[in-house]
User: Fold this.
Amino acid sequence: MKKLSIIKIGGNLIDNESLLNNFLNDFAQMDGLKILVHGGGKLATQLADKLGIKTEMHQGRRITSSENRDVVTMVYAGLINKKMVANLQAKNCNAVGLSGADANCILSQKRPVKSIDYGWVGDVEQINISFIKLMLENEFVPVFCAITHDGKRNLLNTNADTVAAELAMAMSKDFDTKLIYSLDKKGVLADVNDNNSTIKSINLEQYQALKLNGTINKGMLPKLENCFRALANNVSIVRIGDGDVLKEDSELFTSLIRK
Amino acid sequence: MKKLSIIKIGGNLIDNESLLNNFLNDFAQMDGLKILVHGGGKLATQLADKLGIKTEMHQGRRITSSENRDVVTMVYAGLINKKMVANLQAKNCNAVGLSGADANCILSQKRPVKSIDYGWVGDVEQINISFIKLMLENEFVPVFCAITHDGKRNLLNTNADTVAAELAMAMSKDFDTKLIYSLDKKGVLADVNDNNSTIKSINLEQYQALKLNGTINKGMLPKLENCFRALANNVSIVRIGDGDVLKEDSELFTSLIRK
Assistant:
């Protein structure tokens, strides 16, 4: 099977123009088949503020009213996605910017209302890989934002970490797939205040322990859930690191290990 | 050669949700290979107003400051494009939303500053049809907004009528190409105040006369320039009409004729 790298770039890297540009340099230079998935950064919240639209978060997830959905669609699928594509094209990387609605690549279900009504938030139901495969086979580089759709005209705001993991799981049927989460830290830290405290590897049992003792918490929890779910579903390698994790000779990152 | 229809939908149709939905119904049902190109409507100006960003127009073209470019990228490439794609997908039309930066499909040059500095406005230099052909061959339906790029990281705001005409000219090398401009009027009108005064056909000579006597003016002038340029460059059929122009049995529209 051919090797495929799926890289998710997080909000904090996107907000910093020079970090982002360095990251895109490294991404453009990576050999082999690759897909980029990006989150949104603070731009959507800033735009909502300017427009007087209230931003409400619950456990790090955006409660997405109709107005908020328009904002994230504009910022993620429009501004961030197309700026990245234009930047990658200038670096000779033949990027194609996509949402999950395009070619019906990512079909989601609007999250059912339980104790919280998340609004227009989607949970991934199905990845249709035919278009993605066609692109990879023809040397195009898909760049996904985390806007998906429900097949019934509705766009849905979807968690970018989950989109990356779901893409990796779906693609691993046809490709030897590596999933990389790239953030502004050198991996999962033993001490959140010490950027030199990267944990080199974590298996499922260690993850449970680190969760219990509070070392891993907040936003890192759902990210690691995605990592172990990907590993349990045939994704070969899962790593968390900063921009340098893309480099061949990179050494400092966290490897997630199946057993 | 296989037949290909390139349809450009104008601003006024986009602004009206029910007209737009009817149009997308007809577009989804069209047989054969097809590409949709859309303009922006009033949404970009409305968003700019809300954000306190000044909108300046010169002869119907937007003077595009950096801030204005962000606005049109968000609105055209994000909101309008992805909403259309999600709508078409719900109508079983396998749409893929694109800007000219994606797959380097449309390369433009920033308009040189002469008496007017248009800012980040692009004039189309080159259409790269390989990705577009790949999509058409695999039964995907490209949906282009009129944001292009210069290959040097810069997104450029580009006239959607021109994008449609340039796409039609480029594709006519490999396809028997029809170019249709769909607007909120039943074609070119002999009397702008009478929507029943559609001129059934106009050749180049007649166009010059209609231009001289003022029947054709304002925004219709550059549109017709694009039409005759397309006809002079191997595009087979060029029509201007309303949403009904897509229907097989449509009779009321303006045909542009080479000689």
Q: What stands out?
A: DSSP finds eight helices and 14 strands in chain B. The mean pLDDT of chain B is 94. The radius of gyration of chain B is 17 Å.
